[in-house]
Amino acid sequence: xxxxxxxxxxxxxxxxxxxxxxxxxxxxxxxxxxxxxxxxxxxxxxxxxxxxxxxxxxxxxxxxxxxxxxxxxxxxxxxxxxxxxxxxxxxxxxxxxxxxxxxxxxxxxxxxxxxxxxxxxxxxxxxxxxxxxxxxxxxxxxxxxxxxxxxxxxxxxxxxxxxxxxxxxxxxxxxxxxxxxxxxxxxxxxxxxxxxxxxxxxxxxxxxxxxxxxxxxxxxxxxxxxxxxxxxxxxxxxxxxxxxxxxxxxxxxxxxxxxxxxxxxxxxxxxxxxxxxxxxxxxxxxxxxxxxxxxxxxxxxxxxxxxxxxxxxxxxxxxxxxxxxxxxxxxxxxxxxxxxxxxxxxxxxxxxxxxxxxxxxxxxxxxxxxxxxxxxxxxxx
Length: 381
Hints:
By secondary structure, this protein is of the alpha/beta class. The protein folds into two domains: 116 residues, Alpha-Beta Complex (Aspartate Aminotransferase, domain 1); 237 residues, Aspartate Aminotransferase, domain 2 (3-Layer(aba) Sandwich). A seven-stranded mixed sheet has the order 2-8-7-6-5-3-4, sandwiched between helices. The longest helix is centred in the C-terminal third of the chain and has 20 residues. The model has no long low-confidence stretch (mean pLDDT 97).
């Protein structure tokens, strides 16, 4: 009998709900991908690179032209240490591959890694496969972080704390006050901070994205994960990058070279060209997504759902406790099958879900027509 490395792991909730949406021809607001295309000039750049024969392996760390524009970008945004294209940035085939490489490189057998639930579903399995032990702490119902519980959870086995900002699924932004609190807790420890910042260019209203690499007390023992797929509205391209101090980058690349060796070449070349020609492109991403959020939220205010604040990313959490007392997975399936709108039950992001929590996650990175149709249906409940 084959022994499983992940005995309790089935298909991800994203796979399950997307398949259910397809089966019932439902509007898919479950899986987090935009419905619209990237900038046409970016697509044309990829096409041009392919036609010009740039279809072979890139250097393992990524195309230098892309790493250089990223280093320049990050330095202009402010970092504790000067980002060097060769020493600090590694291009990867998607943020998930970057996360996996980091866990494999830095987490040893028996090491504990602290996660704040609800947490993205790839973290814990990746930690387990690295021989580590996920330690799950729940974010407080009011959206504040459990720093007192974190202080008590840290011990000699603690290797890493994972932060996700802007947060999937809650839309929280880990601001300067939270970074200061985390820095205080980690004083006199050598705990590494892994910051999943794939939605870094989707912050709304008065919110500000603060990277871990901007935090003096943490930057020299931190890793930041970024995603071109999210930023370019092209999740299927599977392109991201990892930024870390030289000593951590050295270890991460040791693993990454045997995971994928290199990310796809034409898209790296196109990304470098596009970013070089559009120095303020990232600002437009927040503008687009805030418009989407505002439309979705405005229409849902007429519904019986209660809406949680969303300061970043492209997900809206709704509380449906005034509509039904069904568990969230049951209710999500019910909405998909009967109403024709698919969502994600937030309990899927917890090790120990709150038994009375009735929350669903909707992705609003969709065309306006889709958002209007889905909210019309949801307001019928």
